[in-house]
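Hi support team,

I've been running sequence recovery on a batch of backbones for a student project. Most finish fine, but this one hangs at about 90% for roughly twenty minutes before it completes. I'm not sure whether the input is malformed or the queue is just slow. I've pasted the C-alpha cells below so you can try to reproduce it. Let me know if you need the job ID as well.

Thanks,
M.K.
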C-alpha cells in the first residue's frame, strides 16, 4: 500500500517537472543532445530496464551496419 502511494507521488512529481520549456540555463544544454545521445546516457544508467535500451541501440547499430554493407555491394 505504501509503495503504491509512493509510486503515485513520484509519477505526479515527474509529471509536474516535465512538459514545456523553461528559461533555465540547463535546458539549453539538454536541447543540444541528440536522441541517440540521450538514449546512450540512459542505457548506461542504473534505471531498471536501461539495459534494454542498450540492447536496442546495439541491435539498431547491427541492422544499420548490415544495410550499409548490402548497399555497398549492390550495383
Amino acid at each position: 500500500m505504501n509503495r503504491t502511494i509512493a509510486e503515485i507521488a513520484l509519477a505526479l512529481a515527474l509529471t509536474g517537472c516535465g512538459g514545456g520549456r523553461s528559461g533555465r540555463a540547463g535546458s539549453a544544454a539538454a536541447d543540444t543532445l541528440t536522441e541517440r545521445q540521450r538514449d546512450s546516457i540512459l542505457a548506461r544508467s542504473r534505471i531498471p530496464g536501461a539495459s534494454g535500451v542498450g540492447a536496442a541501440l546495439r541491435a539498431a547499430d547491427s541492422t544499420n551496419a548490415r544495410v550499409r554493407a548490402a548497399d555497398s555491394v549492390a550495383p
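--
Follow-up from support: It reproduced on our side and the slowdown came from queue contention, not your input. The chain has a mean pLDDT of 79. No action needed from you.
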